[in-house]
Specification:
The longest helix is centred in the middle third of the chain and has 28 residues. This protein starts with 6 loop residues before the first helix and ends with a strand. It is globular. Helix content is about 45%, strand content about 10%. The chain folds into two domains: about 210 residues; about 45 residues, no CATH class. This is Aerobactin siderophore biosynthesis IucA/IucC-like C-terminal domain-containing protein. GO terms for molecular function: 2 iron, 2 sulfur cluster binding; catalytic activity.
């Protein structure tokens, strides 16, 4: 148990950010995340989750799983970094996907084996932040995406954009909730660093993959609110019962956009 977190912090991470403290009862969809690095185990797992997504291709199932996986890995880790100045080990060898359902929706959580907490030293937060980012991205997501890209024959760009859209959404919305002015400034500084200045090696890539997909929001006929138009398609439409049911940000849609900066 991470005693260096307060009970209130743990409660927030568990309730709002997909952190699990114990194994789930459903073991069918629960795995150690290192299984994603093994081609046979990865494909077997995608076959299992295919019954949840009901997509028409393995590529689509891989993309839809990657959306959920990226969210459960980054939500609790980056929230704790930006709001609590605390971090845990999110390397791929320390994580487990724990299956949870909320109604009909499948909302997996992440459980950790080791709960050792790190905090920044005085006047050393920037260096500590780099360590946290490297741990989450280079030591987990980059490895998972490279393996999944090979096993499921899906473009790694799709997987990274699936990750980037959640980084944008979490920092622009969820991570600001209930924050005072000082915390909002820290959240914004971390967000600015992640999507622009953070070097590629922290993500296990030659270039920053979060910056790659950032673009000005535009108002289009596909959405009532300004949106970032994706550069890649996530294949959601292949899992929909409705024909041509694309996400409003999908590049396959004809967007008549007016930039709002």
């Amino acid at each position: 148990m991470p005693f260096e977190y307060t009970p209130e912090e743990i409660d927030e991470l568990v309730k709002d950010h997909r952190l699990a403290l114990a194994p789930s009862a459903d073991r069918w969809y629960s795995i150690p995340t290192t299984d994603l690095l093994d081609k046979d185990k990865s494909l077997a797992y995608l076959d299992k989750v295919a019954s949840i997504f009901e997509a028409t291709s393995n590529v689509a199932n891989a993309s839809l799983f990657a959306k959920r996986y990226s969210f459960l890995i980054i939500s609790s880790s980056l929230f704790a970094m930006s709001r609590y100045d605390k971090s845990l080990d999110y390397s791929i060898g320390n994580c487990h996907v724990e299956s949870h359902h909320q109604g009909q929706a499948w909302l997996p959580k992440v459980r950790l084996t080791d709960w050792q907490v790190t905090r920044p030293e005085e006047r050393g937060r920037n260096e500590w932040r780099d360590q946290v980012i490297r741990n989450v991205f280079a030591d987990n997501l980059s490895k998972a995406w490279r393996a999944l890209s090979k096993s499921a024959s899906i473009s790694i760009s799709v997987l990274w954009e699936n990750t980037a859209i959640y980084v944008y959404w979490l920092y622009e919305n969820k991570f600001l909730e209930g924050a005072n002015a000082e915390l909002k400034a820290q959240v914004q500084a971390d967000y600015d660093y992640l999507r622009s200045a953070a070097p590629g090696h922290l993500f296990g890539e030659a270039k920053n993959p979060i910056a790659k997909f950032d673009s000005p929001k535009v108002l289009t006929s596909a959405s009532n609110e300004p949106i970032r138009i994706r550069k890649t398609c996530c294949y959601y439409y292949q899992a929909s019962d409705e024909p041509n049911d694309y996400c409003p940000t999908c590049p396959k849609l004809k967007h008549e956009a007016v930039s709002i900066g």
